[in-house]
């Protein structure tokens, strides 16, 4: 009965941490509601999008007196903002942000205006959107399942380590195995599909997701290695420490300091986005990135 309760507690902690990580990550859509004129406008602004197509912005604004425009530019650049008027289609205002290379980032603002004032949906802070390649569903499923299992077994091993006389090493071995599979095999495969590189964390880059996975794995391997010839009491301490490190690592939002395309790779010293209007479909204002100068 005690073991069942410990598994339930481990599952609850795992679910809470994964939801927290998802909601606080920089790729989770920015959602909210704001008052524009006499209307409450709900919005959902994406912060991650596939790089095979432009990002279509769509906001429900039934009040026809409200208009709007979109501003965007390369993230962390000093370029002038590209301005695009939002097009009304029924109850919606629509706009498009041009697709970027894998790991390319743009910052954008959505401004709505009534007869009297303009309102930025994200306030003074622009929304940052990162573009990525499409990952096969099977790879995503295996990665998510193995990472979820790694954290679950890690927490369960930590709880077991708190019990005097227990031996949590087998649970720790399962946690380490799942972490290696999810973080060091399928994680890099996802990274390759998404951003073109298998590994961009330490020592080759600054990707925090890769780096924190490596840190957690090193601690778990160390804990299991030390536990081989030590007493159960010492083993429990090392495994509890590895479990705590894993917990701290997973509390760091996913994709924080993630892969980022270097626009200096493109020709020209100054990069800015230019958009051309398709004359044959001017009514839809279909914008796309024509050149970087």
Describe, in plain words, how this protein is organized in 3D.
With 293 residues, the chain is α+β, with helices and mostly antiparallel strands. It is built from five helices and 13 strands. Strands 3, 5, 6, 9, 10 and 11 form a six-stranded mixed β-sheet that branches. Helix 3 runs antiparallel to helix 4 and helix 4 packs antiparallel against helix 5. The chain is elongated and about 75 Å long. It starts with a helix and ends with a strand.
Helix content: 25-40%
Which geometry do the CA atoms define? Answer: elongated
Strand content bin: 15-25%
Number of strands: 13
In DSSP terms (H or I, runs of 4 or more residues), the helix count works out at: 5
Number of domains: 2
Helix-strand pattern: HEEEEEEEEEEEHHHHEE
Mean pLDDT score, rounded? 84
What is the terminal separation in angstroms?
Answer: 67 Å
Cα-based radius of gyration, to the nearest Å: 24 Å
SS-based class: alpha+beta
pLDDT < 50 stretches = 268-293
Q: How is the biggest beta sheet arranged?
A: 6 strands, mixed
Summed up:
The chain has 293 residues and is α+β, with helices and mostly antiparallel strands.
Question: How would you describe this structure in keywords?
Answer:
293 residues; alpha+beta; Immunoglobulin-like; 2 domains; six-stranded mixed beta sheet; three-stranded antiparallel beta sheet; 39% helix; elongated; disordered C terminus
């Amino acid at each position: 009965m005690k073991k069942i309760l410990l598994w339930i507690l481990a599952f609850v902690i795992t679910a809470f941490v994964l939801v927290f990580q998802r909601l606080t990550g920089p790729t989770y859509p920015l959602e909210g509601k704001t008052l524009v004129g006499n209307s409450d406008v709900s919005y959902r602004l994406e912060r991650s999008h596939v790089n095979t197509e432009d990002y279509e912005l769509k906001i429900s604004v039934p009040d026809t007196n409200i208009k709007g425009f979109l501003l965007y530019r390369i993230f962390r650049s000093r370029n002038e903002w590209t301005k695009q008027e939002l097009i009304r289609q029924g109850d919606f205002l629509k706009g498009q942000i041009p697709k970027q290379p894998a790991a390319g980032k743009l910052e954008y603002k959505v401004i709505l205006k009534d007869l009297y004032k303009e309102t930025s949906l994200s306030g003074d802070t622009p929304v940052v959107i990162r573009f990525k390649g499409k990952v096969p569903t099977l790879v995503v499923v295996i990665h998510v399942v193995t990472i979820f299992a790694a954290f679950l077994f890690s927490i369960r091993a930590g709880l077991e380590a708190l019990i005097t006389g227990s031996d949590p090493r087998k649970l720790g071995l399962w946690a380490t195995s799942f972490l290696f599979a999810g973080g060091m095999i399928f994680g890099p495969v996802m990274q390759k599909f998404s951003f073109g590189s298998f590994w961009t964390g330490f020592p080759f880059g600054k990707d925090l997701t890769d780096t924190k996975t490596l840190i957690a794995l090193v601690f778990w391997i160390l804990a299991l290695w030390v536990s081989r010839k030590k007493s159960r009491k010492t083993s429990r301490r090392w495994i509890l420490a590895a479990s705590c490190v894993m917990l701290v690592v997973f509390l760091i939002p996913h994709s924080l300091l993630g892969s980022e395309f270097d626009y200096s790779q493109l020709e020209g010293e100054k990069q800015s986005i230019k958009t051309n209007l398709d004359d044959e479909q001017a009514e839809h204002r279909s914008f796309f990135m024509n050149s970087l100068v």
